[in-house]
Protein 1
Amino acid sequence: MIFYTPFRFKMNYLILIYVYNIFYNMYFINNNIKQNIINKMSENILFSNYPGMSVASPSTTPNYKYHWIRDSAITMKIILKAYQNTNNQKLLLLLMNYVENESKIQKLSTLSSLGEPKINIDGTCFNEPWGRPQNDGPALRGLTMIHIYKYFMNNHYETFANQIVIPIIINDLEYIINNKDIVSFDLWEEIKGFHFYTRLVQLKFIKECTYLQNNDTLDFNLYLNIDLESIYTSFLKIVSVHIDKTNNSYISTFDNNNNTALRLLDAHPAALPRRQRAR
């Protein structure tokens, strides 16, 4: 069954951070515009009195005053970029609070382990009915943590990076590997299945872990007793099943029986790898 639902209020915030991510690298975008967006994000981060929390929206109708793992990861990646460009110490504090908070969140006894989509802004578990797990969250958090780790290692925060950031990355990596065959909800929290987007960000995270392992002293194989390159190859195969070569389209979601549940129609041939394009 395919479900169609209206976009919800929280999408406005997701659009904001995605658009900012694009705009930040465009030299012709006015710095005042960039700063205004950063200020708006900072308001959401500082909304809670609990350091490191980032509300998706201050909205109460509907209520989006929660800390989503997905949203906060994307937000803090942008905050890191802004800090790198401005050296604003307030942004550095936001980054450190975020890392310390995520370390605490990973230790919570949530209903769906690290796949729990959101947390109360007082740092406690959200245990009411919801679409869980959402397994893109750990991958997005892991990707942001890798960026933070690299920056901290190169800027004299080695102890913080090794003692706090690396364990978060390892925990998210282990969770993703152990739950690759478990259905989860999509990023709009509506459909349960195996999702192209979720698997794609998981693949990206694992690939970045291999880069980190190959170019640093880290050894995820030793930490987790795994062969990371082989795992990356297996995830690459998993993602490839979403590419429909015959119809030049992507299958967005498979249900829990691996039947096509939702298809992204009419993918442009140029978007497909060259060997998969229609002749």
Protein 2
Amino acid sequence: MADKIYVDDWGTEIIVDAGGDITGATTSNLLITNPDGTTDTWVGTVYTHPDDGLTNYIRYVSVVDDFDQVGIYSIIADFVTPSWTGSGNPITFTVFALNDFITISDMHLNQIKSAIAFPSVDNVILTDDEIKDFCIRPALRDYFTKFPKKAVLTGSLTTSGEVEIAFPDDLTFGVVDARITDKLSNDSANTGNFWELASFNKYGLSARKRTYGIEGYNPNFLRQQKITEMQAERSVRDNVEAIRIKVDTDNSVVSFFTNQTCKYFIEWAKWSRNFDDVKFQRINDVIKLCQANVKEQLADTVGLVTNASLDITINADELRSQASELRDPIIEKWAEFPDMTLINI
């Protein structure tokens, strides 16, 4: 599979491990769950992988409209052979948007360009698009590494084992927080079953102070005794619980391993290509970083580019000095804030 798939790509080779030898399979499909939850079936072919020589794979080449949505796709190999029928483990991958461009208002762009004598001089070696790509984009990444946009994902883990959750898009670069938020135990009555209700009421725990469901009833501190019993039971259960959370930023995956049913919480760290997503309190800092990048880029470029029509003298050393004067105080001020790649698990 390609390292990066973009929306509306076609001709992309997809090879999925079926988990066993599927030689002679009469059915070799890929079951697709699209980002919006809809499903498709792609008809593949049995494939012998040259790396290991095993006929354990289904190969498919994407066609027009296969990748018509941006987001996370899930694929499961589904097959029928003369000797067995089955399906492989689900895998996920992300399809990215084509709009990989920087969005910035003319007002902010002109403020950045004022560092190189705009509007008196415009398009001196660097075009607006080059300033966006080479100067503003790095500044935005520096900013969002310290002050990321955040997005929350919650869900339930209903089976034992390891579950992998892919980063949702190419703007997500890390995790601010990842944790198990609720172990779905029997501390509350979930049905009308008599014995379950009786077990729940022996603790008499609710948002209000009551015992056996009676408001204000707490003879001989019975409520406190029952809370102590429940905590002891939880302590016993905790001794046999296994929970592991792993954040793999290299492969853009969060893994949860658990032997119980529970809920998870992930707070993603994201950057943005839109200058308007910079917080008001930091706009001047980011503009100065952009200006420093413009001066440095111009200094690096001036020795390589000759334009005889320009009646301008450019002092590269002075530009680099000015860039440092703009950048260094910002970097020093931001140093007290941690880089938001992985903060809390």
